[in-house]
């Protein structure tokens, strides 16, 4: 692996490697898939840790200090984010 690869996010490197695999054959593709899986595992772990920190020690403290209007606004914003995420996931599922 080149030093350039070490400075870039694993996902970007894996994406390029997958694209290159179409030219260079199965060995490149297999290597890229392994890198992509490792990157996804790392990202998933970090995301779960981040969510756990938000949900347990941080979120309850924030809610305790919000007035009803601010909480309703925050709830509406989160509902909109969930809907947008759901719609993106649905489109990906239909096209992929």
**Fraction of helical residues:** over 70%
Secondary structure tally: strands: 0
Mean pLDDT: 78
**What is the percentage of strand-forming residues?**
under 5%
Count of helical stretches: 4
Q: Which descriptor suits the 3D outline?
A: elongated
Query: Main β-sheet, in a few words?
Result: none
Please give the radius of gyration in angstroms: 20 Å
Distance between the termini: 30 Å
Contiguous low-pLDDT stretches (5 residues minimum) are: none
Alpha-beta classification: mainly alpha
Describe the structure.
It is a single chain. By secondary structure, the chain is mainly α. The chain folds into 2 domains: 1-65, no CATH class; 67-96. Helices cover 90% and strands 0% of the residues. The chain has helices at residues 3-6, 10-24, 26-64, 68-95. α2 packs antiparallel against α3. 4% of the residues are buried.
What structural keywords apply?
mainly alpha, 96 residues
What layout of secondary structure does this protein have?
Blueprint: H1 3-6, H2 10-24, H3 26-64, H4 68-95
Helix pairs in contact: 2-3
Provide a concise account of the structure shown:
The protein is 90% helix and 0% strand.
